[in-house]
Design goal:
Number of helices: 8
Bound molecules: 5-O-phosphono-D-xylulose
CATH superfamily: Aldolase class I
Number of domains: 1
CATH class: Alpha Beta
Radius of gyration: 16 Å
Largest sheet: 8 strands, parallel
Shape: globular
Keywords: Carbohydrate metabolism, Cobalt, Isomerase, Manganese, Metal-binding, Zinc
InterPro entries: Aldolase_TIM, Ribul_P_3_epim, Ribul_P_3_epim-like, RibuloseP-bd_barrel
EC number: 5.1.3.1
Distance between the termini: 10 Å
Order of helices and strands: EHEHEHEHEEHEHEHH
Strand content: 15-25%
Function: Catalyzes the reversible epimerization of D-ribulose 5-phosphate to D-xylulose 5-phosphate.
GO molecular function: D-ribulose-phosphate 3-epimerase activity; metal ion binding
Oligomer: single chain
Structural class: alpha/beta
Length: about 220
């Protein structure tokens, strides 16, 4: 069975101690860094941009899994590649030419991801799933950390897994929003490969131990 992945979201970290938070993830059993880029247009919140991604890239020793919650993401594909990002995920809802966008991400040497809002059907990936490396299934409405997990996500993950198998795609399924030690195992059982965890990790008393706990739960 392939290794299951935990990706702490730095959105919930202490930005005043960012280097310390990055080192914590470096030293932990986490697999990826998850970076949430929000523009205040696609989502009603602004998070952080290029200078912070550059600072993170300087210290991070694990892949940078970057989730663009922005309109017109094509404008910044090369910039993120130059900053050292490994996975670049765009929103289905923000890409009128999704196939072209995926090719452009891959041409820059990054894994190409597509994120689906809670209202967006997995069936819309029928014609692109073979070109996708990662599908982020949003289990909250994007824009904020610390929200409650949407229960319908389990069935969506199951249906997406079926689509991936039916189409012989190698896409990984990543779940983002409200992930904790209670829902993690069930998400993996329904077909998830990677789990993003923000508040559950960074707001806990011992983040390294919390990451270890998540890894054990999904092993
Ligand atoms: O993309 C997003 C929110 O839009 C997520 O990555 C959250 O940052 C996850 O945070 P928690 O729900 O785990 O606190």
């Amino acid at each position: 069975m392939s290794k299951k992945i935990i990706a702490p979201s730095l959105l919930a970290s202490d930005f005043a101690n960012l280097q310390h938070e990055i080192e914590m993830v470096n030293q932990s059993e986490a697999d990826w860094f998850h970076l949430d880029i929000m523009d205040g247009l696609f989502v009603p919140n602004i998070s952080f941009g290029m200078p912070i991604v550059e600072a993170i890239a300087k210290y991070a020793k694990k892949p940078l899994d970057t989730h663009l919650m922005i309109v017109d993401p094509d404008r910044y594909i090369k910039t993120f590649a130059d900053l050292g990002v490994n996975h670049l995920t765009v929103h289905y809802e923000a890409c009128p030419h999704l196939h072209r966008t995926l090719q452009a991400i891959k041409a820059e040497g990054m894994k190409a991801g597509v994120a689906l809002n809670p209202h967006t059907s997995i069936n819309l990936l029928e014609d692109t799933i073979q070109d996708i490396d990662i599908v982020i299934v949003m289990s909250v409405n994007p824009g904020f950390g610390g929200q409650s997990f949407i229960e319908n996500t389990y069935l969506k993950v199951r249906d997406l897994k079926n689509l991936i198998e039916r189409k012989n795609s190698s896409a990984l399924i990543e779940i983002d929003g409200g992930v904790n030690a209670t829902n993690a195992k069930k998400l993996i059982d329904y077909g998830a490969d990677a789990l993003v965890a923000g508040s559950f990790v960074f707001k806990s008393e011992h983040p390294t131990e919390t990451i270890k706990q998540l890894k054990e739960v999904i092993a």
